[in-house]
Amino acid sequence: MAAPVRILGIESSCDETAAAVVVDGREVLSSIVASQIDVHSKYGGVVPELASREHLRRIVPVVREALGQAGMSLNEVSAIAVTRGPGLIGSLLVGYTYGQVLARSLGKPLVPVNHLEGHVHAVFLEAQQRSSPELPEFPAVCLIVSGGHTVLYEVVSAPGVPETNGSPPAIRCAYSRLGATRDDAAGEAYDKVAKMLGLGYPGGPVIDQLAVHGNAEAVPFTAPNMRGNVLDFSFSGIKTAVLRYIRQHPEFEAEIASREDALRAGTQRADELLPLCTARTLDLVASFQRAVVTDLVRRTRAGAERRNARSILVSGGVAANRELRETFAKEVAQSGLQVFFPSRELSTDNAAMIAAAAYPRLLAGEVATAGTAATPNLPLA
Ligand code: KG4
Ligand code: ZN
């Protein structure tokens, strides 16, 4: 039996500073996520300069906590995995440079990881947390939907799965991009609509909870017509449509102002904002969510059909959305496909998914060389 492969993962691509220890790509010993929501919430979105400053402040204690919770010292780590891209350059540089310095000073391999591959592996990691793991069958189609990304990939099992020398087998995949957003990411649309309506930041979780109180059929939104590639997405149109609707109804003004006052006074939770929302606002929020969810599900299913996929994987912050999960589960059940989501904790940015994605790459010897650097636009396929 080979010695367990203990990977310390580091993630800092956007506004979460995260570290985790994962053994053999499947057993999560620790996963620490320091969120910067408090720092960015008053701006209604991530401010890149503030994000890198916060990463600098938090990276050392977060890594220390992840090791502490795993009951391990740095010397017991087999390798360091770090997000190379895509992401904000200032944010990426903090995690990448720290990982690089740690690896060099310890004489351990550094495994650069694509953040999007991390989101795909979050699904496999989740499936492996069950006592009798049911893994997705390939080919699969994976929708990665977050504040920074909305992209659809075909995921196939890659040839040449590395020899594990007695360690548990590694899941190794290859990707081809089927479609992506041409403008805003879906999570970005949630955040911008929430900002317009005085619902705070991040918008996704609050809109998710408020939407159940509204009539999702009340405001008709037209689905974007994606000429050229029907598997592409666009969310800037719906954002503008929401703004137009707000302007057409002057009574929104006082209501939005009262919620903004409440936010300034420290209110953040959906149950506290709910009494400050009229039926018209709840209908608007529910209709917005219905339109976004319907579009995401429809295009993902079209991608799955086109590639004869056997399963659908959904990952990224918006994958935490209740209506999205329910709609996928319902529609996919009808078509005989399997659908897989990570838990809420593994859906949003974390370092366990980075350590998990690094496992097959480490076994294949794909470690950083002197020329490897943090890359803000790093492609997956
Ligand atoms: O993956 P993530 O943590 O960071 C990025 O890479 O962006 O995703 C954060 C995004 C935010 O836009 C947030 O509003 C959205 O995910 N989000 C949600 C929900 N929870 C988080 N959107 C819809 N419904 C949710 N429950
Ligand atoms: Zn992400």
Structure, briefly:
By secondary structure, this protein is an alpha/beta fold. It has helices spanning 37-40, 48-70, 89-106, 115-127, 186-196, 203-211, 236-248, 252-264, 270-273, 279-306, 322-335, 344-347, 352-363, and strands at residues 6-11, 16-23, 27-35, 79-85, 110-114, 140-145, 150-157, 173-180, 311-315, 338-340.
Describe the structure.
The protein is of the alpha/beta class. Helix content is 44%, strand content 17%. The chain has 13 helices and 10 strands. The chain is globular, with a radius of gyration of 21 Å. Bound molecules: 5'-O-[(R)-(carboxyoxy)(hydroxy)phosphoryl]adenosine and zinc ion. 5'-O-[(R)-(carboxyoxy)(hydroxy)phosphoryl]adenosine binds next to helix 5 and helix 6.
